[in-house]
Design brief:
The protein has one domain. By secondary structure, it is of the alpha+beta class. InterPro entries: CHP02453, UCP028451.
Length: 220
């Protein structure tokens, strides 16, 4: 589970996002990161049983993303992220890109999954899969429980124009115009600090799993 000191550290970081404070509180950061690594390891073991394309051998340390921001080309010079991000990639396709993502931020945490902003070749492959097997995708994203957990799948970034090789009259044009194929579910601080936090997150992921299968199949 996420310890209260981890959320407390992130709250304090928001108010003191500078190198001097961070170095003075490095021990708090190290404790928070170790909590994140342990929590991630717990999730990996449980998630592998739900989605075998998430390797049980994933290194939890490598899954927890850096808290340091790359500010070289950014106007925002704040040096640290105000959250912990965890990337849990699948290995079910040769091309990759499909993953689960855990975002820990006080009051704004969530679990997500799918494929965010695929590169051109991947996007083309996913659109082709939608064109050929749209009914399979719609059975997943229009299922009442899926909508309850994740909201309306179609309400994410779409092209303003019709994608090349497809007609505006295509009955699935709303899906074919999507730029990303992701969903997310909010997580309350209280849920994260529960002893059943990892089980709860994996349970949500189990309902996301059919979407990852569809996307991975498109990239094989």
């Amino acid at each position: 589970m996420i310890q209260s000191h981890t959320l407390d550290f992130l709250k304090e970081l928001v108010e003191n996002n500078n190198r001097d404070w961070f170095q003075a509180n490095k021990e708090k950061y190290d404790q928070a990161r170790e909590n994140m690594i342990a929590f991630t390891a717990d999730i990996i073991g449980k998630l592998h049983k739900i989605d075998p394309t998430v390797s049980a051998d994933l290194d939890a340390k490598k899954c927890v993303m850096r808290i340091y921001r790359d500010i070289r080309f950014s106007k925002n010079k704040i040096p640290y992220k105000n959250n912990f991000g965890v990337s849990l990639p699948t290995n079910g396709s040769k091309l990759g890109g499909v993953e689960y993502y855990l975002h820990i931020q006080p009051g704004k945490s969530f679990i997500a999954g799918g494929y965010w902003m695929p590169e051109a070749a991947h996007l083309k492959a996913i659109r082709q899969e939608i064109d050929y097997n749209a009914n399979d995708l719609k059975k997943i994203i229009d299922a009442p429980h899926f909508v309850k957990l994740f909201g309306e799948f179609r309400k994410q970034d779409q092209l303003k124009t019709v994608p090349r090789d497809y007609s505006a009259e295509n009955e699935n044009i709303d899906l074919l115009k999507l730029k990303s194929f992701i969903v997310s579910h909010p997580l309350k601080d209280k849920e994260l600090m529960s002893v059943s936090a990892a089980d709860h997150i994996v349970e949500v992921c189990s309902h996301l799993y059919p979407l990852t299968v569809f996307l991975c199949n498109a990239l094989v």
